[in-house]
Design a protein that fits this description.
The chain is α/β, with parallel strands linked by helices and 937 residues long. Among the domains are: 184 residues, Leucine-rich repeat, LRR (right-handed beta-alpha superhelix), CATH 3.80.10; 161 residues, Ribonuclease Inhibitor (Leucine-rich repeat, LRR (right-handed beta-alpha superhelix), Alpha-Beta Horseshoe); 148 residues, 3-Layer(aba) Sandwich (Rossmann fold). 23% of the residues lie in helices and 24% in strands. It is built from 24 helices and 51 strands. The strands form nine sheets. The protein has a 30-stranded mixed β-sheet that branches. Helix 16 packs across helix 19 and helix 19 runs parallel beside helix 21. The longest helix has 23 residues. The chain is extended and about 130 Å long. Bound molecules: 2-acetamido-2-deoxy-beta-D-glucopyranose (6 copies). It is a single-pass type I membrane protein. Keywords: Glycoprotein, Immunity, Inflammatory response, Innate immunity, Leucine-rich repeat, Membrane, Receptor, Repeat, Signal, Transmembrane, Transmembrane helix. GO terms for molecular function: signaling receptor activity. InterPro entries: Leu-rich_rpt, Leu-rich_rpt_typical-subtyp, LRR_dom_sf, TIR_dom, Toll_tir_struct_dom_sf. This is Toll-like receptor 13 isoform X2.
């Protein structure tokens, strides 16, 4: 079959989104196995809206599934995480998931669906269930026992299902439920939820978020019949209450009486006023979260002392000042003020917060950080301080002297260009110092002095030009990240090399080759972003991971050795080239085979290297007998057509091909990899060609290897992209398949035609019915007398001419005085209009059609004319007169019925412009009408 016509057919099919196209595609699910993905890269299903955060070992994601049994047929039985997006079946049957006895987390996003009793039965380990309905169509039917059997469920989230359509008492099967999240359920009052809360004995966390609660009413406070030790109010023993994202503007006294003691109260993005909460019935709150709230003068200490709070999370709340008035802040341990408008911190305020352990001041307007500036300032207990993303310029001596307990200090993304000697003095416990993305250009002898405990130092994205050779004396760094420009004196490495475990360096030239650098004994991971790297031989004996970014020259100082000779235990290699680098150095690619310990290999943008150096790809992966994962991203490997390409990869389990135009894939390539489990094509294009038929058949017939995501793989034909499996199935399969395809296509086409042309067919049928009916009527009655001389068919726009000219000339100027039928005067009121038309035509001797542009475009007029034409044909008497009131060209007429043909045979008159002509016109018309003898009743 001609390929273009088949494409045309399929395009048509796609355009009309016919149903059966989709049913040709069987597998809509993808599988992730954590032990492959988590270590090597962060592939994830980002359409599951936060559900990815739940732990899994084998995750399955199915999109657009209609038949759940079919779709889940191939999913591993060990699946413990399942996400169904856009599920479009009508029902979910009893026990539909019960094969997956290890299922731990289940997310269902669906439209109108019926959840049958016991849908979730047979899932003894399910702890988390999220059900989200479509915003637009969310008629989800629950049964009394839909949730039967969920004996381990701890977290249930229900989104976009109206509470009115959903009865909380349905959840009485969930004995262990600990966390109930209701989101977007049109809930107006909290008591709609709390009234049914008694059925949950173990519920600790309740979230009613993005709902319509504006008012927390006294009436929402539930009192119990038999008073308890907590007084007259029911205590649900809820520890976490979340009312975020509602317009909470009114809080009446006692409205939250059922929640006296909270671990955490969250009202982010609500507009609630903390003072109103004082009388709400809540007595203690350990953690208060009021983000996005828009307070200016939040009284931190007053609120904290009222609720005996330990943590205040006040992010993005327009706070200008740390207000410590009105109470004691003694209990506060954590204060998060990220994303506010603070422009200073005061020593005095810090003294009011003596027990504070964590302080987050990131994303404010701080130009200086005054915590200890007063010589006699007392010691603070702070352990974590974050002042990143501010405008700090300089760090002064003694600036942190009162922070003896501090372990983590982040000053990332400020404008720091000067660090005074001994600026970090006093930070005796500091382990992590983050100075990324500042303007630091010099590291002096005393910059980091006395930082005895620092293990992690981040100097990435600075402009360091000069390190003092003793800069790291007494510092036992484990991780260092830094960006610097080439410095001939690299002896500063010598102080830290024996403790380093991770190095991440970005520089223009990196030479780690001198005698003093002969060994980095504990180094595990090396991330190098540099075009020119030279290493010595014995340096990195323990290194397991190496990242090379933008590297062109990669050499060993002893030219006899491969550059990888220093890495005898390397397991992971990432090599990424800048796409603009047209490199003629192929050292790295050609040396891969020397790293026989390699387990993970990632190659990115090496396409130009392969092309310019004419590397034979059959040689690249030789001797990598321990490789388990191979990730090729834009690697220029377009043809997998020989069994030699991967012939040594006996251990390979996972192959990812990303961002690549594949020209050829033969299944023979995979024969040499007995342990292969997954092939993942990501953003890969194939040409639409039957050459891949063998590969597809191999994939479908083999149970060992799964090709993840292949069901929605696209192929390209003349720049048109279409579904690859669909293409192969419909073009490259046997004749029977093809015939079935054509048959079903024709059915679809016929159906489309019917629906598309429904309008015109409707008219046609109506017309035939009436004609038959009238013709019978008139024949049977042997009518040959007429009621009218003429029936005038015209468009309402031409009514003026008809009433003022035509009627005048025919009915009033005589003799003879003709009897004329026009619809708005002579039609019988209340009768069907088509019957009226038929009757008028058949009871008039002549039918006169007043043809104008409007007339031709009107449905009624065209019906009248067709019927008149029909009468003309059946009666073989002359009965039709055409009057052209507008000038209409023959070309234009071609589009209308068989009008042109009629013109050749029948009487027609043109309406003249001038008066003499008009006189003649009327005379002629009268003559024609009178001609055939007047036989009126
Ligand atoms: C995640 O799950 C795996 C296996 O199911 C388990 O071994 C691991 O401890 C879990 N991790 C977390 C953080 O819960
Ligand atoms: C919702 O679905 C049920 C059956 O699933 C049906 O009986 C009911 O009429 C539907 N309601 C609406 C409003 O569509
Ligand atoms: C919920 O179900 C219970 C018992 O099945 C019933 O008493 C109650 O009226 C129902 N509530 C709503 C809002 O339908
Ligand atoms: C409330 O919950 C706590 C645990 O969070 C438990 O120790 C206590 O017994 C519960 N109280 C009641 C009245 O259920
Ligand atoms: C403070 O809040 C910000 C923004 O939500 C968050 O990124 C940060 O981790 C929080 N800080 C602490 C110490 O929890
Ligand atoms: C330092 O703090 C003490 C006690 O808080 C105070 O009395 C003194 O005036 C402060 N000195 C300066 C220079 O601010």
């Amino acid at each position: 079959m001609n390929i273009y016509s088949s494409v045309f057919l399929q395009l048509l099919c796609l355009i009309f989104s016919c149903y059966f196209c989709q049913s040709l595609l069987r597998q809509n699910c993808q599988v992730l196995e954590k032990n492959y993905y988590a270590q090597f890269m962060d592939l994830k299903f980002d359409t599951c809206e936060g559900f990815e955060e739940f732990n899994f070992s084998i995750a399955v994601h199915c999109d657009h599934v209609e038949n759940l049994h079919l779709a889940l047929k191939d999913a591993p039985l060990e699946t413990d995480w399942l996400c169904l997006t856009k599920y479009c079946g009508m029902t979910m049957e009893t026990g539909v998931f019960s094969r997956f006895t290890r299922l731990n987390a289940l997310y269902i996003e669906t439209r109108d669906v019926e959840l049958q009793p016991g849908t979730f039965s047979g899932l003894p380990q399910l702890t988390t269930l999220w059900i989200k309905a479509d915003v637009m169509s969310n008629n989800i039917t629950f049964h009394k026992d839909t949730f039967f059997g969920l004996n381990s469920l701890q977290e249930l989230k229900i989104s976009y299902i109206k509470l009115s359509a959903f009865n909380i008492s349905l959840l009485n099967h969930l004995h262990l439920l600990d966390n109930l999240i209701l989101e977007n359920n049109n809930i107006l009052y909290l008591s709609e939820v709390t009234a049914s809360l008694g059925i949950f004995k173990n519920l600790k966390k309740l979230s009613v978020v993005s709902n319509w609660i504006r008012k927390l009413r006294t009436a929402d406070c539930l009192t119990s019949q038999n008073p308890t030790s907590y007084g007259q109010f029911v205590n649900f023993n809820i520890s976490h209450l979340d009312l975020s994202a509602s317009q909470l503007t009114i809080t009446e006294p006692k409205s939250l009486c059922n929640f006296p003691h909270l671990e955490r109260f969250t009202a982010d993005s609500t507009g609630i006023a903390i003072e109103d909460l004082y009388k709400s019935g809540i007595k203690t709150i350990k953690t208060i979260s009021l983000q996005n709230a828009g307070f200016d003068k939040f009284q931190i200490c007053a609120s904290a002392s009222h609720f005996k709070s330990e943590e205040l999370l006040l992010m993005f709340s327009s706070i200008h000042k740390i207000n410590t008035f009105g109470g004691s802040c003694k209990n506060i341990k954590k204060l998060n003020l990220s994303g506010n408008y603070l422009d200073n911190t005061g020593v005095k305020q810090m003294q009011k917060l003596p027990d504070l352990l964590e302080l987050d001041l990131s994303n404010n307007n701080l130009e200086s950080l005054e915590l200890c500036n007063n010589e006699s300032a007392p010691m603070l207990k702070l352990v974590c301080l974050n002042a990143s993303f501010n405008y700090l310029l300089r760090l002064q001596k003694g600036q942190f002297a009162c922070l003896k307990e501090l372990k983590s200090l982040s000053l990332e993304s400020n404008k720091i260009n000067h660090i005074a000697d001994f600026a970090f003095d006093g930070l005796d416990q500091l382990q992590l110092l983050n100075l990324q993305h500042n303007n630091i250009f010099r590291i002096g002898e005393f910059t980091f002095s006395n930082l005895f405990m620092v293990r992690h130092l981040n100097l990435y994205e600075n402009v360091v030009k000069k390190f003092h050779f003793d800069a790291f004396r007494n510092v036992l760094l484990e991780d260092i990240k830094l960006t610097y420009t080439f410095d001939h004196d690299f002896s500063w490495w010598k102080n830290i090399r024996r403790s380093l475990r991770n190095i991440s360096v970005k520089t223009n030239v990196l030479h780690l080759t001198s005698d003093v650098l002969d060994e980095f004994p504990f180094l595990e991971s090396l991330q190098l972003d540099s075009p020119d790297i030279a290493l010595s031989c014995a340096s990195f004996a323990e290194a397991k991971e190496l990242h090379l970014k933008n590297t062109i020259e990669f050499t060993n100082i002893d030219a006899r050795w491969s550059p990888f000779a220093s890495f005898t235990k390397l397991e992971k290699l990432y090599y990424s080239v800048h796409p603009q680098d047209v490199s003629n150095s192929s050292t790295i690619i050609n040396s891969l085979k020397d790293i026989s310990s390699l387990k993970f290999l990632y190659l990115h943008n090496i396409d130009s290297i392969i092309k310019y150096n004419q590397i034979n790809i059959n040689n690249i992966f030789q001797r990598l007998v321990h490789l388990k994962v191979l990730h090729l991203k834009n690697a220029g490997i377009e043809r997998l057509d020989s069994k030699d390409v991967f012939s040594d990869l006996q251990d390979l389990e996972f192959l990812i091909i990303e961002n690549q135009n594949m020209q050829e894939v033969e299944s023979i390539v995979f024969d040499s990899m007995p342990n292969l489990k997954y092939i993942y094509f990501l953003q890969t294009t194939f040409p639409c060609s039957c050459n891949f038929n063998g590969f597809l058949s191999w994939l479908e017939s083999n149970t060992r290897v799964s090709a993840i995501g292949f069901y929605n793989q696209k192929c390209l034909i003349e720049d048109i992209s279409m579904n690859f499996r669909f293409f192969l199935n419909s073009n490259c399969r046997s004749d029977l398949d093809f015939i079935l395809f054509v048959l079903s296509f024709l059915c679809t086409l016929l159906f489309m035609c019917l629906s598309l042309f429904h309008e015109s067919i409707h008219w046609y049928i109506l017309y035939i019915v009436y004609i038959v009916k009238c013709w019978l009527n008139h024949r049977l009655q042997h009518k040959d007398k007429y009621e009218y001389d003429a029936f005038v068919s015209y468009n309402t726009n031409d009514e003026l001419w008809v009433t003022e000219q035509l009627l005048l000339n025919l009915e009033q100027k005589g003799p003879p005085f003709f009897k004329v039928c026009i619809h708005n005067r002579d039609f019988e009121v209340g009768r069907d209009i088509v019957e009226n038309i038929m009757d008028s035509i058949y009871s008039s001797r002549w039918t006169v059609c007043i043809i104008t542009h409007n007339y031709l475009q009107s449905n009624w007029c065209s019906l009248e004319m067709r019927m008149a034409t029909y009468k003309l044909l059946t009666e073989s008497k002359e009965s039709l007169i055409l009057i052209f009131l507008d000038k209409i060209s023959r070309e234009e007429l071609q589009y209308y019925h068989r009008l042109t043909k009629l013109l050749n045979k029948k009487t027609y008159l043109d309406w003249p412009d001038h008066e003499n002509g008009q006189q003649l016109f009327w005379a002629r018309l009268r003559k024609i009408i009178a001609k055939s003898g007047r036989n009126l009743k």
